[in-house]
Amino acid sequence: MHVTKKPTLNDIVQIIPSHEGWRAVLVGGEGTTREDPVTVLPVLCWALTEVEGGERRVVGLVSFGTHIDVAELGDQSRRSTFLAYIAPGEPLAAWRERAKHAMFPGDFK
Description:
Blueprint: E1 12-17, E2 23-28, E3 38-42, E4 45-50, E5 56-64, E6 67-70, E7 80-86, H1 93-103
């Protein structure tokens, strides 16, 4: 199985603005609860990245408090894990449920 590393800031080839309303949904993080285990952050911009082997991907950059990083890396200092990017106007309810399943799988057997 081929596993590609997740892009980092060092892999950025180009940055373009994000349209207002795009968000990154993360599981866990500061202020989350069992009932609402998601952190929602606005996507500041999109970055075209190129990782080893030449694979290119577009990723969102978000602000994790004092630093900006690739949303898909999550924020280890706040123990959050990337779940999805959601488009402007897309409801968050289904992603909250997916986050609950990810964090508390034993509750859904």
